[in-house]
């Protein structure tokens, strides 16, 4: 047996994910350099194509390349006029080789194509889309053929840079041809497409119209990868360099959002807003990773759209985008337009078309928890909440808001009085919501116990103000009928009872709770729900008058526990 080990397998060549900007930089990044490089002719010949042929003729590149060269009238390719004369022969032969999936000379053919584009410029227009499709197919090889993919990217970059006027003039057709790139499963392909096409879109004087066309065409395909690619496109339209943004980013973002919001078809518009959400997320992540930029310009743009809304749908679209800006960078909030945000919310609430809906209620919740949670905003938010509960719509939606803000520092002083107003309205107009308001009060009582109570072993009633009169009266009345009501409702009442004020310690209310505890532990219901309810009742009685626990028979408790 041969003791020698097999040699290690050769290292796999990795694909360098060059961006469109990096590829363009390799041929002259800015317009001046690019134009100079494009117009600079080879020293010893008139054509870039002839120079490329000479280069690759000196290399052994297989039968594919040799066959291609043999098909050309090489002796008649010395001048630009001769190239135009034989353009059809050259283009057809080159396209045939690029479309061959078994071709071994793709890098050579891509370089020849790039040279042909540089020579023909606008005259390349008639063949542009055929070659674009062929290059797209080359990219489908992915990392299986690294050199071919890199060469194809370079050729595509050159085509976009040279032919941008034609791409812009036929924008709809151009975008449709780019869809395979935007919808690619490979992130680097989508990024390339976004960077390349954003270069074209920035040249337009009607960006708003182009954004509508992008969304409408993407909607016809309805692919997740395509929507991600479109979001990257919108992002790269405004993205700058070194962590910054394009000099006209503010105007561009306004056009993009305005274009999507103006789409007439609700289904297409909703699809467009989903793309906008992804684009805003990319902008936010870009700012989070950097150190130079902030989100203030984006915040103000979206807030302006919210303030100029003409329907609740428009308000909700803006709120969906704005809430994405509620992020942190190095544990510090990036959102800096708090006053403008509060002003926008107040303006929205006075719109004639405003009505309660879950989207806006949830947005207000996110504003409270993530942006306006400091004590300085308590008074203003209290006024906002008071207006909210007076608006038309499904009043039950406000419980999503109140149930999730009990932990904010100013809840007791500014939000709790509004809860009292809500309870008065429910007991007088919306009695079907009584279980919901009881649940809210129980949550408040269980989570908002002052620290002083624990230290001094005293209770400071939370609900002794006039605004909570209805809930106090209801709890005291229902205490005598706990056995007759559903267990969840009884639990809410028992959790609230110790905190409603001086009426709590009255002999009758304590006696009712003692009787209820006795009924629970002596009954035949030993379910987990019954056990938890008994624990709540005992805990509440202990807080009010622990001496009354002596009236509960110990033997009955032992039997209940077993």
UniProtKB/TrEMBL annotation:
One of its GO terms (cellular component) is small-subunit processome. InterPro entries: ARM-like, ARM-type_fold, SSU_processome_comp_20. Transmembrane segments: none annotated. PANTHER family: SMALL SUBUNIT PROCESSOME COMPONENT 20 HOMOLOG (PTHR17695). This is HEAT repeat protein. It comes from Necator americanus (Human hookworm).
């Amino acid at each position: 047996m041969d003791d020698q080990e097999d040699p290690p397998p050769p290292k796999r060549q990795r694909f360098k994910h060059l961006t469109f900007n990096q590829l363009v930089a390799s041929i002259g990044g800015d317009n001046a350099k690019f134009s100079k490089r494009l117009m600079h002719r080879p020293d010893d010949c008139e054509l870039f194509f002839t120079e490329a042929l000479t280069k690759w003729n000196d290399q052994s590149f297989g039968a594919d390349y040799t066959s291609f060269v043999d098909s050309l009238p090489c002796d008649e390719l010395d001048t630009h006029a001769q190239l135009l004369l034989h353009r059809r022969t050259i283009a057809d032969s080159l396209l045939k080789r690029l479309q061959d999936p078994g071709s071994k000379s793709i890098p050579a053919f891509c370089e020849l194509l790039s040279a042909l584009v540089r020579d023909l410029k606008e005259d390349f227009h008639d063949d542009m889309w055929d070659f674009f499709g062929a290059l797209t197919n080359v990219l489908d090889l992915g990392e299986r053929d690294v050199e071919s993919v890199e060469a194809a990217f370079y050729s595509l970059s050159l085509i976009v840079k040279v032919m941008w006027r034609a791409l812009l003039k036929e924008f709809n057709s151009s975008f449709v041809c780019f869809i395979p790139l935007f919808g690619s499963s490979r992130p680097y392909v989508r990024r390339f497409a976004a960077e390349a096409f954003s270069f074209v879109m920035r040249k337009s004087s009607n960006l708003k119209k182009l954004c509508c066309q992008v969304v409408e065409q993407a909607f016809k395909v309805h692919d997740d990868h395509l929507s991600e690619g479109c979001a990257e496109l919108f992002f790269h339209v405004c993205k700058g360099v070194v962590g910054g943004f394009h000099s006209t980013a503010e105007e561009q973002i306004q056009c993009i959002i305005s274009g999507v919001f103006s789409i007439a078809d609700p289904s297409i518009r909703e699809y467009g807003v989903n793309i906008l959400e992804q684009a805003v997320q990319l902008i936010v992540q870009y700012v989070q990773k950097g150190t130079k930029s902030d989100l203030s310009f984006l915040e103000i743009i979206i807030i302006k759209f919210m303030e100029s809304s003409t329907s609740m749908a428009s308000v909700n679209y803006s709120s969906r985008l704005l809430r994405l800006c509620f992020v942190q960078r190095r544990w510090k909030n990036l959102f800096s337009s708090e006053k403008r945000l509060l002003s926008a919310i107040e303006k929205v609430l006075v719109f004639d078309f405003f009505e309660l809906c879950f989207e806006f209620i949830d947005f207000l919740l996110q504003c409270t928890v993530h942006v306006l949670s400091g004590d300085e905003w308590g008074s203003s938010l209290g006024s906002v909440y008071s207006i909210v509960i007076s608006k038309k719509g499904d009043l039950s939606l406000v419980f999503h808001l109140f149930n999730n803000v009990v932990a904010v520092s100013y809840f007791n002083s500014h939000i709790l009085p509004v809860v009292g107003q809500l309870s008065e309205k429910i007991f007088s107009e919306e009695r079907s919501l009584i279980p919901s308001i009881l649940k809210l009060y129980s949550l408040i009582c269980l989570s908002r116990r002052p620290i002083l109570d624990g230290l001094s072993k005293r209770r400071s009633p939370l609900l002794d103000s006039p605004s909570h009169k209805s809930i106090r009266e209801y709890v005291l009345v229902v205490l005598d009928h706990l056995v007759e009501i559903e267990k969840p409702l009884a639990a809410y009442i028992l959790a609230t009872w110790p905190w409603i004020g001086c009426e709590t310690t009255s002999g009758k209310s304590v006696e009712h709770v003692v009787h209820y505890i006795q009924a629970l532990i002596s009954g035949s219901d030993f379910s987990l729900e019954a056990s938890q309810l008994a624990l709540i009742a005992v805990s509440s009685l202990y807080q009010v008058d622990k001496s009354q626990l002596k009236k509960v028979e110990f033997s009955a408790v032992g039997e209940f526990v077993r």
